[in-house]
Design brief:
1 helix
């Protein structure tokens, strides 16, 4: 009787181990997926940031050129 209970307990514990392994694999897969999503999102923001910096640079250059022309015109009138 005691041996039967021990064997039953061993089977229960083995089932728990299998379940825990599955849960661990599932959690690791979810973690990997979340990390990939986070990295993709970071890359997307990095690209957007670069686009904005480029646009800002072009706009600043345009303003600089316009101001230069304005100053040249103003000097010509003096």
């Amino acid at each position: 009787m005691e041996q039967h209970q021990a064997e039953q307990r061993i089977r229960e514990l083995e089932e728990c181990v299998v379940s825990l392994r599955f849960s661990r694999r599932l959690l690791l897969n979810l973690l990997t997926e979340l990390q990939e999503e986070k990295e993709n999102e970071r890359l997307c923001y990095e690209r957007e940031k670069q686009k904005l910096l480029d646009r800002n640079r072009r706009y600043a250059r345009l303003i600089w050129e316009k101001n230069k022309k304005i100053n040249e015109i103003a000097k010509g009138r003096l």
